[in-house]
Design brief:
Blueprint: H1 2-19, E1 30-36, E2 39-41, E3 47-54, E4 57-61, E5 66-70, E6 78-79, E7 84-88, H2 91-126, H3 132-164, E8 167-169, E9 174-179, E10 186-187, E11 192-198, E12 202-208, E13 221-226, E14 239-246, E15 257-262, E16 274-279, E17 288-293, E18 298-299, E19 308-314, E20 319-331, E21 334-339, E22 346-348, E23 361-368
Parallel strand pairs: 1-23
Antiparallel strand pairs: 1-22, 2-17, 3-12, 3-16, 4-11, 5-7, 5-10, 6-9, 7-8, 9-11, 12-15, 13-14, 13-16, 14-15, 17-21, 18-19, 19-20, 19-22, 20-21
Length: 370
């Protein structure tokens, strides 16, 4: 009687053991590359790409409105002072000038008539035939006629000038950079027609980020290297330059500041050539900052005080924890960390997006940041 009961108990135990789930295998401990945080000097030998421009660029247009009849100027053409660049239809302005001349003739006639009338009444007064009031009236008429004549002459001079304004002439020697109007187009007064780069001094124009603006000043020395020498494919030798102008406000789109550097006089550099500028940061203080590669940064979880975080390695527990940091900018291929880290701490340098808070890791490699 005991044997069947024992068999039932044994069978139930085996069935229960067969239904229980096996334990899940433990996740392997990841090996991570670590960087030891240290404060290094901010790099001050950055090179900026720019282009060569004329010191003075003029956008020329007519001082009167009208229909464009001809435009001899073409892009890339060299022009000299006084050369014809474009011409408007002068017919309407010529007629207006003729009308003004006619008004001058009419005013001259009225003035001569008033002068003759005054002379005649002056003679009559000497004979006692008219009173002094009549003389005063004729004198007033003569003064009004003279004023009308001066007004007509001034108006005629204005109309004559406007007739001459139908010819757009180069005010200095240079090169035509752009043409902004075509034959047959009706132009408003002041509308640009051609843009000319005047001969003379040349500048190199670059843009710099906001974090370097405080290190620039007018007159600061720099080295300019052209991408290719004049007329050759070989790189040109560096030449000295100096900062001539620093923009007072940032570009609204790029948030960068334009800097113009003056090139030495007489150096044959082609307009629009690519130039590389290296500023002389001598005397500029290089603050000690913490820099990390971009691979060490990640987006912070929601609710964090900063949008960027790093994984900090705890040597006591061999685990990693996220820590928000504040990024101040870039220095070459590295990001400058303004706050959040201390020298001597270790952070994960790669694979930051596959880690979890409190996860155990092993050290793969360690190196000191620069």
């Amino acid at each position: 009687m005991k044997t069947p009961h024992f068999v039932l108990i044994l069978t139930g135990a085996l069935a229960l053991s067969a239904c229980s789930r096996p334990e899940a295998p433990q996740e392997p401990i990841r090996s991570v590359k670590l960087l030891t945080v240290s404060a290094g000097a901010m790099g001050l030998h950055s090179e900026y790409a720019g282009e060569v421009r004329a010191r003075t660029e003029s956008r020329l247009g007519f001082r009167v409105s009208g229909k464009l009849l001809q435009r001899p100027a073409e892009v890339g053409q060299r022009v000299v002072a006084g050369q014809l660049l474009a011409q408007l239809d002068p017919q309407d302005l010529a007629l207006a000038s003729q009308a003004a001349q006619a008004q001058v003739s009419a005013a001259q006639t009225q003035r001569d008539l008033a002068a003759a009338d005054l002379k005649r009444f002056t003679d009559l007064k000497a004979q006692g035939f008219v009173s002094g009031a009549e003389i005063e009236r004729r004198q007033a008429n003569l003064q009004a006629a003279e004023a009308t004549l001066k007004q007509a002459q001034a108006q005629s001079a204005v109309q004559g000038n406007q007739a001459n304004y139908t010819r757009l002439l180069a005010d200095a020697s240079g090169v035509v950079l752009a043409v902004e109007a075509e034959v047959g187009q009706v132009l408003a007064s002041g509308a640009p027609v051609v843009r000319i780069a005047r001969d003379g001094a040349r500048d190199v124009v670059v843009v710099v980020p906001e974090d370097r603006l405080a290190q620039l000043r007018t007159g600061q020395a720099a080295q300019v290297r052209l991408w290719a020498g004049a007329g050759t494919l070989e790189p040109a030798a560096p030449m000295a330059a100096s900062v001539r102008e620093v923009a007072a406000s940032a570009d609204p789109a790029t948030r960068t500041y334009q800097v113009k550097l003056a090139l030495p006089d007489g150096v044959p550099v082609p307009l629009g050539a690519t130039a590389y500028v290296t500023f002389d940061w001598a005397g500029a203080s290089a603050p000690a900052v913490v820099k990390l590669p971009t691979s060490a940064l990640m987006r912070s979880p929601a609710g964090a005080p900063s949008s960027t975080s790093v994984w900090v390695f705890d040597t006591a527990t061999s685990t990693v924890q996220p820590r928000p940091v504040v990024v101040a900018g870039a220095d070459g291929n590295q990001m400058v960390i303004a706050s959040g880290l201390k020298p001597g701490e270790e952070v994960v340098a790669a694979g930051v997006h596959v880690l979890q808070p409190g996860q155990k890791v092993t050290r793969f490699a360690a190196a000191a940041t620069q």
